[in-house]
Amino acid sequence: MVSIPDYTRILFFSFGGLLLFGLIFIPMERTFPAYPNQNIIRPRWRTDLLFYLGQNLFWSWLVLWILGQFGTWLQALVPISFQRTIQEQNYFLQVTEVVILSDLLIYWAHRWQHSWSFLWRFHKTHHTAEHLDWLAAYREHPLDTVFTVGVINLPAFCLGFPLETLAGFIAFRGLWAVYIHSNVSLPIGPLKWVIGSPELHHWHHVKERNCGNYANLSPLMDLLFGTHVAPGHFPDELGVNGEGPKSYWYYLIEPFLPKRK
Ligand SMILES: [Zn+2]
Ligand SMILES: [Zn+2]
Predict the structure, then answer these.
(1) Residue 10 counted as domain residue
(2) What is the number of the ligand closest to the CA of 136?
(3) Distance 234 CA to ligand 2 centre (A)
(4) For the chain, how many structural domains are there in total?
(5) 12, part of any domain
(6) How far apart are the CA of 205 and the centre of ligand 1, in A?
(7) How far is the CA of 12 from the centre of ligand 1 (A)?
(8) Could you identify which of 74, 118, 156, 224 might form a hypothetical disulfide with 161, taking C-beta atoms 3.0 to 4.6 angstroms apart as the criterion?
(9) Helix orientation angle between 117-127 and 142-159, rounded to the nearest 10 degrees
């Protein structure tokens, strides 16, 4: 059963996380900047701070609560004998399987978020950021986050992977998502063929909707399915064509408004 901590702990985790990420990523962004002219205090940082607070103080816990309500029912979809086989494997095998399964699922789900107009309405919010850094990683419409978190975790949860395996993996994925949005350029040599990077994900944020680099932990799925984009430098312009800056609250309601002509 998934339990929600009390609100004092949620406040502690949220503000503690903000402080911790700031302490990790601000020195990295100053030491290895991909865009040396981009300041730490850059345009629209307040909007992204509100996205961070919204996600960490409210939306993530709502998703966890919903999962708690349906968890037992969801796990009953898969035979208990199969779940036991999964749980009896050693930890590293479990982690490897979760990484491959979730990367495959999120790769196709992410392509779908770009190609299907209904999902793009919500996913577009994430792409409106014109300056990426560690804080911009949190610019996501809450329903887009629910979709992504569900695709990444629900199948593994239903198959019976233990919560301890999933919790470590979810924490790592969260940290990785922040890293690939950061204004950091770290050369990783031949590892670039197996490990994702800020450079690859910045190419995912160029103004074309059909931009490539849909996976994030590893570029293997993009290499396999022909969507890998790696010109060898960071792109000049990021954002969405024809989109100007909007407030946090407008971003929340925008997907529900009638389409602009
Ligand atoms: Zn995207
Ligand atoms: Zn992104």
Answers:
(1) no
(2) 2
(3) 14
(4) 1
(5) no
(6) 7
(7) 30
(8) 156
(9) 110
